[in-house]
């Protein structure tokens, strides 16, 4: 089903969007290909489910950007704005954010970093938070009453869980480093220290994510004026965060 609009029916402030989406599509596609190829090449050296989980995130983002580009390009150059394509953008956007947060939760638990598998409780907690996050995000995007409050509450709980587990893992790794130094077991020092630095960087990245999400949801300006600038900042922030984590 499609809705046709004349070129004058589309706000001119959105004219920059096709080029913007195409640019980020190229960036995310290269990132997705690089991540996938690297994970595939290293599959013989380590069976790391986390890497494959993370590799799916840029693929979902690339799909969202593809649909976004096609939608806006069609609107401006063919005067056809597809309802189904806009729905695809909506769905893939929700999936991207959900997959991102599930990945963050897995990393914070130390999955494939400090432990080979999660406990039953950790798996249930991660699955529950992921499902609730998805549903509240759908409700929020659909402008369902009170879902904004539920989404904020879900963000608070998710970030609490993430930072709590990061702190736990850092504490354990500090104890291990202290033990290694006391016992002078230098063979293990490099691997443990690498994991410690990894979690410290991830902690910093999550602090940036928390601040970015706070700024995004505190910005109540839904006007089309300079929308492309806000979109540019948001897309760059998302890419830089994943590049840093990756």
In short:
Keywords: Membrane, Transmembrane, Transmembrane helix. The chain crosses the membrane at residues 20-40, 52-72, 84-112. The chain has 246 residues and is mainly α.
Structural account:
With 246 residues, the protein is mainly alpha-helical. The chain has a single domain, classed as Rhopdopsin 7-helix transmembrane proteins, CATH 1.20.1070. 22% of the residues are buried. The chain contains 7 helices and 2 strands, in the order E-H-H-E-H-H-H-H-H. It has a two-stranded antiparallel sheet with strand order 1-2. Helix 1 runs antiparallel to helix 2, helix 5 runs antiparallel to helix 6 and helix 6 runs antiparallel to helix 7.
Write the layout of secondary structure elements.
Blueprint (H helix, E strand, L loop, with lengths): L1 E3 L12 H25 L7 H29 L2 E3 H27 L10 H22 L5 H37 L2 H33 L8 H19 L1
Helix pairs in contact: 1-2, 1-7, 2-3, 3-4, 3-5, 4-5, 5-6, 6-7
- Strand adjacency order, main sheet: 1-2
Secondary-structure-based class equals mainly alpha
List the helices and strands in order: EHHEHHHHH
Radius of gyration: 21 Å
Summed up, the domain count is: 1
Count of helix runs: 7
- Going by CATH, the architecture would be Up-down Bundle
What does the average pLDDT come to? 81
Poorly predicted segments: 1-8
The tally of strands reads 2
Strand-residue proportion? under 5%
CATH class: Mainly Alpha
- Characterize the main sheet: 2 strands, antiparallel
Fraction of residues in helix: over 70%
- Tell me the CATH topology: Rhopdopsin 7-helix transmembrane proteins
Cα(first) to Cα(last) distance is: 39 Å
């Amino acid at each position: 089903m499609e809705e046709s609009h004349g070129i004058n029916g589309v706000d001119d402030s959105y004219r920059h969007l096709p080029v913007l989406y195409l640019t980020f599509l190229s960036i995310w596609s290269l990132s997705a290909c690089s991540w996938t190829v690297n994970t595939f090449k290293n599959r013989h050296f380590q069976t790391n489910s986390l890497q494959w989980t993370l590799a799916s995130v840029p693929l979902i983002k690339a799909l969202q950007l593809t649909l976004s580009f096609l939608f806006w390009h069609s609107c401006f150059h063919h005067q056809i704005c597809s309802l189904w394509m806009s729905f695809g953008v909506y769905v893939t956007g929700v999936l991207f954010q959900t997959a991102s947060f599930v990945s963050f939760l897995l990393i914070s638990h130390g999955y494939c970093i400090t432990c080979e598998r999660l406990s039953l409780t950790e798996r249930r907690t991660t699955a529950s938070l992921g499902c609730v996050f998805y549903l509240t995000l759908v409700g929020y995007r659909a402008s369902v009453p009170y879902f904004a409050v539920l989404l904020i509450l879900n963000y608070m709980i998710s970030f609490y869980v993430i930072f709590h587990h990061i702190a736990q893992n850092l504490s354990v790794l500090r104890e291990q480093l202290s033990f290694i130094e006391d016992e002078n077991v230098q063979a293990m020092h490099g691997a443990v220290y690498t994991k410690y630095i990894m979690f410290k960087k991830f902690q910093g990245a999550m602090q940036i994510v928390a601040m970015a999400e706070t700024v995004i949801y505190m910005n109540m300006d839904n006007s089309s004026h300079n929308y492309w600038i806000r979109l540019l900042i948001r897309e760059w922030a998302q890419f830089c965060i994943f590049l840093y984590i990756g």
